[in-house]
Queue: 2 jobs
Job 1
Amino acid sequence: MERNKLIIPINNKYRIASDSNQWIVQSKRTRNGSLEWEARYFYSTFRMALGSLGELMVRESKAETLAEALIDVENITTLLSQALTPSIEPSPDEAEEDHDGE
């Protein structure tokens, strides 16, 4: 039986996935010449996974001063918010209908 799996892309380096038991922070890596997603951290709630990923991204930032770190925190917060904001785009057929009606 295949498990349901939700995948939330965050950026080119990270995503959050789930299975029926947990939330998983995954990172992209190259293995045997091909890109794959590697499970790195496991959490019982989405909130814990998201918070932990945000903290990880701040720790991995190249900030050397408090001011730089605060800017990185703001940028990471924005990135995570955008990743969680649904975007609804018209299908190519709907977009074409909009142009035809003008």
Note: Residues 7-100 form one domain.
Job 2
Amino acid sequence: MTYSNEAIGKLVEPARLHRSIYTKEEIFELEMERIEAIRHSEEPSVDMVRQLLQLKGIGLNSAWLYTMEFFSWRKFRNRKEVGALAGLTPTPHESGSRTRYEQGGEPAHTWYGC
């Protein structure tokens, strides 16, 4: 099942989706909108948020992020794909006959300025 941007856009004002800096008032306002959506929305993605909120250690922002970024529109075939998206497992990178795994950053044995 996929969810349209229109359905998600009803929950979050589209003009705010492209900004990266928010004031405390805007963050509070956004959290209140999320709480109202969780209380009253019939969207399937919000039902997923409600389910995640029942787990210990998962708060409002985490449940919302995991649902909207991971589970509401992506289809995973196995748990390894979920781990790779979360950055918890290496991603294979093939080049010619070699297969390397990217972890990001520099190797621990790299020396600078020697």
Note: DSSP finds five helices and two strands in the chain.
